[in-house]
Amino acid sequence: MIFDVSSLFALFWVPYVIMVNFAVTRVIAALFLKSTLEVAAREKEKVANEAKKKKDKVAKRLKHIFKLADGSGDGCVELEDFRRMLDEPDV
């Protein structure tokens, strides 16, 4: 084909083929990268949700412990209440 038109046609044809192959390769790589980033974002969100659930569970447990420690019911844990709670095996 090149010899039918001109040998100078190769100066335009070869760079064109190289650029098209490069562009197609970049598009395919971009699709893989997009999928990878989406999965990473979902994983990060999942880890954050699990950490929040764990933190909420610990906070709920601590709130329960301090509610049990508050013998007078005034919202404050006094020294004698604290010492009493230290002697309990559940704490």
Polypeptide structure, described:
The chain is mostly helical. The mean pLDDT is 87. The chain has one domain (2-87). The chain contains 3 helices and no strands.
The H/E string reads HHH
Low-confidence spans: none
Q: Rg, please?
A: 34 Å
Our estimate of the beta-strand percent is under 5%
Q: Would you tell me the overall average pLDDT?
A: 87
Helix segment count?
3
> Kindly, what is the distance between the CA atoms of the first and last residues, rounded to a whole number of angstroms?
87 Å
Provide the helix percentage.
over 70%
Count of extended strands: 0
Helical/strand content category: mainly alpha
For the largest beta-sheet, the strand count, sense and barrel status come to: none
Net shape: rod-shaped
Domains (count): 1
Topology:
Elements: H1 2-5, H2 9-69, H3 79-87
What can be said about this structure in brief?
The protein has 91 residues and is mostly helical.
Keywords:
single chain; 3 helices; calcium
